[in-house]
Amino acid sequence: MKIGFIGTGVMGTGMIKNLLKAGFEVTVYNRTKAHAQEALNSGAKWLETPAAVTAVSDVVITIVGFPADVEEVYFGDHGIFSAAHGGQTLIDMTTSSPSLAKKIAETGNAKEIGVLDAPVSGGDVGAAKGTLTIMVGGDQATFAAVQPIFKAMGTSITRFGGAGQGQNAKMANQIMVAGTMTGMIESLEYAKKAGIDLSQMIETINGGAAANWSMTNYGPRILKDDFKPGFAAKHFLKDLRIALNSADEMGIELPATKVAKELYEKMTDELHLGDLGTQGLIKVYEDK
User: Fold this and answer.
1) 3-state secondary structure at position 190
2) Has 192 been annotated as catalytic?
3) Residue 192: other Cβ atoms inside 10 A
4) Is the four-CA dihedral 236, 137, 108, 147 of positive or negative sign?
5) Distance of CA 172 to the CA centre of its chain
6) Burial of 140 by CB count in 10 Å (0-12 exposed, 13-18 middle, 19+ buried)?
7) 3-state secondary structure of 192
8) Whether this model's pTM surpasses 0.85
9) Rg (CA), the chain
10) How far is CA 116 from CA 14, 77, 106, 145, in A?
11) What is the β-pairing status of strands 132-138 and 120-121?
12) Are 92 and 66 in contact (CB under 8 A)?
């Protein structure tokens, strides 16, 4: 299968490298070509538009920033659907809205194109190592056909149902991440104020019932003042807003997630630190 890949950011680049290592031919497009250079150096080919990439691919994967970017990539004048045809498969791995995933699937199904929504979890570390968790919505037969592609990028691959259900699963995941991120930051702030060695605290937490991915992966980065974005705060804020909008549509309240959203809004909108990694949330507490 020839793969087209649209979006060569931190996540996309790691995923592309693993697809190349697995022997797939990969053609890429990114809004800024310079940001695709690492993928090109690794063996990917370049084309100038999403439509051009689609025209030479059996499977097209997208992982871009925001739902508006997804909309443009699929439905724009030079977008995927301007060149897609029956028999192809489209996989959106952006964390986006369930309703947009359904719209893409409906458009694809009308053209006899397989469509999956398949957002991921695992950050830049998982993308680089090929150990992503992949949450999938869409047709079972389409899901089965692209297993070799998913296995090149991830180790936990689960289909949750029809179109949009991958995105709903990702929202549930991000709600959990919101809790572990705020818990990690407040745990470290408390320990610091109490005069506890933070390295010892991280090791102790990760040896007991409070162990969690955020503390393991982001705690040490915070101690090194490393706020490079494995996952940018502005994108996590986008996820939390999608989750809360979807919760409103389902008629449920998520008060703790609302608090996390407000904290990330302060980090992103007030302090203008949205390009930092999610671990940069600690700067909101330092600002108080």
Assistant:
1) helix
2) no
3) 14
4) positive
5) 13
6) exposed
7) helix
8) yes
9) 19
10) 20, 22, 11, 11
11) antiparallel
12) no
- Extract the tokens encoding 279: 């671990």
Tokens of 17: 């490298």
Handedness of CA 158, 161, 165, 168 (dihedral sign): negative
- CB 242, CB 171: distance < 8 Å: yes
* 218/106 Cα distance (integer angstroms): 39
- CB neighbour burial string for 120-137, b if at least 16 within 10 angstroms, e if fewer: bbbbbebbbebebbbbbb
Structure tokens at 104: 């893409």
Q: Which of 102, 170, 234, 238 is catalytic?
A: 170
Measured CA to CA, the distance from residue 196 to residue 180 in angstroms comes to: 20
Q: What is the DSSP string of 197-264?
A: -HHHHHHHHTTSTT--HHHHHHHHHHHTT----SSBHHHHHHHHHHHHHHHHHHT---HHHHHHHHHH
Q: Which two tokens stand for residue 199?
A: 């390295």
Neighbours of 238 (CB within 10 A): 23
Q: What are the angstrom distances between the C-alpha of 236 and each of 127, 147, 241, 263?
A: 16, 27, 9, 11
**Encoding tokens for residue 152?**
């090149």
Question: How would you write the pLDDT of the chain (288 residues) with one tens digit per residue?
Answer: 899 999 999 899 999 999 999 999 999 999 999 999 999 999 999 999 999 999 999 999 999 999 999 999 999 999 999 999 999 999 999 999 999 999 999 999 999 999 999 999 988 889 999 999 999 999 999 999 999 999 999 999 999 999 999 999 999 999 999 999 999 999 999 999 999 999 999 999 999 999 999 999 999 999 999 999 888 999 999 999 999 999 999 999 999 999 999 999 999 999 999 999 999 999 999 866
